Amino acid sequence: MTIAQAMLWTLTYLGVLVIATTLDLVFWRSRSGDLGPWMNLFTLTGLSVVFFVYMSNTTGIRPEFELSSFRELFLALITPGVLYILLDKVLDPLLEKRFPGSEDAYQKGLASLKKSPLVGLIHIGLIAPIVEELLMRGLILNGLTDMHGVYLALLVSSVLFALLHFNKVQTVSGFVAGVVLGTLYLYTGSIVVSIIAHSLYNLLSYIRSTPSTSLKTSRKDAS
After folding, report:
1. Residues 40-54 pLDDT 10s
2. C-alpha torsion 163→136→188→75, nearest 10
3. Nearest in space to 110 (alpha carbons), one of 96, 90, 91, 94
4. Residue 139: exposure state from Cβ atoms within 10 A (0-12, 13-18, ≥19)
5. What's the gap between Cα 48 and its chain centre?
């Protein structure tokens, strides 16, 4: 996979997100009542499945799903703590002060998630980690590594991962998370490991949220 192809696949998935958002705004929010958030979640999940099947068949890339050792599971379990300290306790507070406008936009996204907490939890704790890890680590990082080597592939995939998010706070911390999760994937060779780590980090951020932002999700998944 070339860098240009990786960028094109990322833009294509952004198009999928735009379609899902448009359907949510036009149909689910106005016509589905309390079922609206669930319909949006099902729509996003279905469109993502179609996209990944098509991308995998087109590129011929097949992520490795095997979790083969206790060491890999151990790494999956400790990485969320590392990310939480690095991002939520160190980097994010600095970015929030530096980019208050981006933080305000982030908080508005959280307010929307608060309207349906269970759907929001499923989204940030399950769907988003699976989708983002399959795209950025399982397919793009894999494909880039074959053509460009480990280091450039890790850099490019982390940049693209950051660009999936739409404000400065999320983008900067998303890049750091991309490097950490990408390194974890390259070291273990298992997409399951990075999915578990990503999911647990998001859930940890959710559980450790402050009263003023009771649905504080990871900056990487609130867009």
Report:
1. 999 999 999 999 999
2. 50
3. 96
4. buried
5. 13
